[in-house]
Amino acid sequence: MQSSATLRNLRIAPRKVRLVADLIRGKSIREAEAILRFTTKKGTDSFSKLLKAAAAAAKLRFEVQENQMYIEKLTVDEGSKLKRRRARSRGQAFEIQKKTSHITLVLGSREELKEKKQESKAVQEAQEVQDEQEQTMKDESRKQIPRAMTRKEVPKKEQGMRRMFRRKSI
């Protein structure tokens, strides 16, 4: 179960909005609402409205309790820029960019998170067993090959000279 909500063309720079997003990413809905209520940043109102909209959509579609939901994914992307001009000295005009943000919020369920963790643990254990088997096979194959065949033994002086002069020979 994933419920998402998007907010496009928010008239706040994405850099400023990301500060708020980092505070609530991965938190439950109640924790996020509490954090947003007491944070003094311009983007908190927009985030709280978006969070409430996503939670309401999840309740209607999937009939999930609010205490089981958490913020699974939260991205803040750069939107279009409004370009304005500002008069400067000697008849010049400098460009001012008024930046906008696109926010995408995805809510997930804690129950699904537990199931995913159990699945990933099983996959990880199977991978570890396979790695151990491969390692034992490599060790056995190394024992069979004599040492003289695996690596040429060259005196250190010759190795150093060989590295120093790597030009093509005529």
Top keywords for this entry?
170 residues; flat; alpha+beta; 3 strands; Ribosomal Protein L22, Chain A
List the helices and strands and how they pair.
Layout: E1 2-10, H1 14-24, H2 29-38, H3 44-62, E2 69-87, E3 93-109, H4 110-144, H5 147-150, H6 156-164
Antiparallel strand pairs: 1-3, 2-3
Helix pairs in contact: 2-3
Task: Report the helical percentage.
Answer: 40-55%
Indicate the low-confidence ranges by residue numbers.
none
The helix-and-strand class reads alpha+beta
First-last Cα distance: 70 Å
Walk me through this protein's architecture.
The chain is of the alpha+beta class. It has a domain at 2-112: Alpha-Beta Complex (Ribosomal Protein L22, Chain A), CATH 3.90.470.10. The chain is built from six helices and three strands. A three-stranded antiparallel sheet has the order 1-3-2. A hairpin with a 5-residue loop joins strand 2 and strand 3 (93-109). Helix 2 runs antiparallel to helix 3 (44-62). The N and C termini lie far apart (70 Å). The model has no long low-confidence stretch (mean pLDDT 84).
